[in-house]
Model the fold of this input.
Amino acid sequence: MMANKKAPAKKKAAPAKPRPVKTKPQEPPKEMVMVYIMGKAHRVPADATIMGAIEYAGYQIKRGAGCREGFCGACATVYRLPGDYKIYTGLACTTLVQEGMWLSQLPVIPAQKPVYDIKKLEPNVAAFQVLYPEIFRCVACNTCTKACPQSLEVMDYIQAAIRGDIEKVMDLSFDCLSCGLCAIRCPAEIVHYNVGILGRRLYGRYLAPKSPELEARLKEIQQKKYDKEYKELMSAKRDVLKKRYYARDTE
Amino acid sequence: MYPEYMRDSLKLVDETRQKRLELEKSGKPVFAPMTAEERDDVLNKFHPDYKKESRRVVHIGPNKGEEITTEVADILESHSRIRAELFNLDKPDYETDILIVGGGGAGCAAAIIAMQNGAKSIISTKLRMGDANSMMSQGGMQAAVPAKDSPTRHYLDAMGGGHFDNKPDLVRAMTEDGPEVVKWLEDLGVVWDKNPDHSMYVLHGGGTSRKRMHSCRDYTGAIIMRTLMDEVRNHPDEITVLEFMPTVELIMDKKGHCAGGVLYNMETEEYFMVRAKATIIATGGYGRLHIRGFDTTNHYGATGDGLIMAYRAGAKLMYMDSVQYHPTGASFPEQIAGFLITEKIRGAGGQPLNRHGELFVFPREPRDVESAAFIRECLERHNGIQTPSGRWGVWLDSPLIDIIQGAGYLYKNFPAMVRQFIRYQIDITKEPMLVYPSLHYQNGGVEINAKCESNIPGLYVAGEASGGVHGRNRLMGNSVLDYNVFGRRAGKYAAEYTKHVKLDKLSLKHITAYENELKKARIKTDRMAPVLLPSYTPEDVRKRQLTAHYEGTLR
Ligand SMILES: Cc1cc2nc3c(=O)[nH]c(=O)nc-3n(C[C@H](O)[C@H](O)[C@H](O)COP(=O)(O)OP(=O)(O)OC[C@H]3O[C@@H](n4cnc5c(N)ncnc54)[C@H](O)[C@@H]3O)c2cc1C
Ligand code: SF4
Ligand code: SF4
Ligand code: FES
Done:
């Protein structure tokens, strides 16, 4: 895709250098497709991502792009394809365009996020009942799961929350990007990803087994066990330090 | 799907796999690690930093006369986005204890700790909160938790990794706070990977002498970042988040304290002044400057804004002559060019191979050396594979990992990676990935001490924007630790500072003074910084934008 190859057009003083990655440009003639960005027709390279296509068409994205690699969920997009009644969902940064695609980004999904004190919650179903009572309205239609660009079992983690199975909520929602595509499709108006975050935080804080080694190490540090060695290392001359470094054993 | 012409080479990778598996099992290095001389040689000839054009002298400001990365020198020698005289300094639009610039990991950690120390804050951030490099780390975070490890050993590893140029007090702070950060994050609800016996599940990273890489599957950054964001949102009375409102300049007071910043609403194009008793810069790195034309692993807003804002106000930069290229950025398919393939792939046994399916470098050399070796294999030895669009790459044999570690290992431990490629019909459990170095990390930054103080009173810096802790080469896993340790410290010390500082009248004189310096040095340019966002508008579109007005890269 064109987009991520270009340097920002800002340099003047530095003469343009040959691109190190492209020593022998041999680009084949580009195959193009027609897409409709917010209803407007644009011809874009057939191998472009949706994000690349939007930029190729001349838009400067301000909302709707974050990590550009499928981690942040800033680029939720809905689209339809010709001759197909279905609404499709995807991430603009990782979904490829298709001929006739009719698309629009949803860079922000209005969602509620109740305020809570993690220290005062208990890791059971009550937390969900109080903060996200609407999850009990789930009609098990599975639309959320179908909408998820991460292919997560979204309905199953909502069902797990209903049962108070926090470990399952954590496990099934672990790779959630908070893109909101599930939430925008849900007939029960649930904000799935926030339910997932709550489940994971409850699990991490209360249910994950605690590491005895960690507690022991924290105590050592509190008792300043490493003070002396730190002082030694910090005042050591470079060659002394170097020697110690190269002489250290490796696990 | 790989194009037909790559099939022969892919076949060779398959054919040599058994032999390479036996090598791996022998317990000896699969390829001889380089000697010190060999390292120097490959770095000198092939690492982009060692090329003459990579650096140039900067002519103005606190680091005047120093050789630094060319693209950074360019943004330092550029115009401000604002004209000082347009602002009414008696009427700030917001008042707060601490202005935090950047809503990534360091910024959010700082806000939470500042709040616990009694200070209110405003987070000014360019995109949404969490649209940041912190969201993207997959590999993990170093911390000396296991009994056979120690914080001082971590100290030694970090110093060696940074070629002993690291600032000792910073490295101590980072390594000694490490275990506390693991605990703090767990108490906030981060789900760390654990062993069946409840100990932390830890792995090696490049340059570690003990396994101490903590992870949350391969969504480490996402899990930590979303936990921190959620906590920030749980305190709307103490922490105000202003999204799509980047800071474009710092505000000083007449006595030379940093006293807040000028914010720019990118959508309505309004400017707002925030008066703050202390300011924390947590703007992250600069991958989107596409240094030397390289693709980058970084998020959309990584344009080094903190560097120029602090520099104009008089802050010193450190180690701005070194850039980290990650050896394994994706090279194919084109749509994901530059994306990060985590170092853990090589940690788990993935081997880099040339087009003959042969090993040509030890898989876990330090990042700079490994990157240089990849470039040499492609550009000098012509043993790389070229993609249809002309990019170079070498194979990274991932299927081998499932053979070494057991079937299903990749699916379980690298779901993000598997997903990234399967979208393009490449199953990395069956076929290797094509990789090439990608612009990854800003090794240097604004010089700080262990309290995150810069040389300007009231200006604190934390995370990737700061310089000193990693010397000239950061080890994997130390920057997630860095932004937590120093984000927390910045929050704490800035909060303490706000209790006694008395601000004088506000001033933007430093902006005008800097413009004069530019003029005096006869620097004529239309560059404008902070850059804010890169522009990917194609040339032919630009040519038709007959009445458009660009300020730097932004229309
Ligand atoms: C793909 C990837 C993988 C990585 N993997 C690892 C790993 O496994 N282990 C490890 O230790 N490190 C890793 N790193 C590095 C590490 O993630 C970062 O160095 C670290 O997260 C930086 O944190 P930060 O808070 O300083 O910056 P960021 O998290 O980038 O946050 C900076 C924030 O400031 C905002 N901002 C920028 N300019 C302005 C402005 N002018 N005004 C307001 N806001 C602004 C940005 O948009 C962003 O939200 C990885 C990095 C990347 C890109
Ligand atoms: S879309 Fe809503 S109602 Fe349907 S299964 Fe998912 S959570 Fe339940
Ligand atoms: S669960 Fe919902 S918010 Fe999370 S990735 Fe899937 S669709 Fe997006
Ligand atoms: S831009 Fe982050 S997921 Fe697409």
About this structure: Residues 56 and 128 of chain A are 44 Å apart (CA to CA). Chain A has three domains: 32-105, 118-207, 212-242.
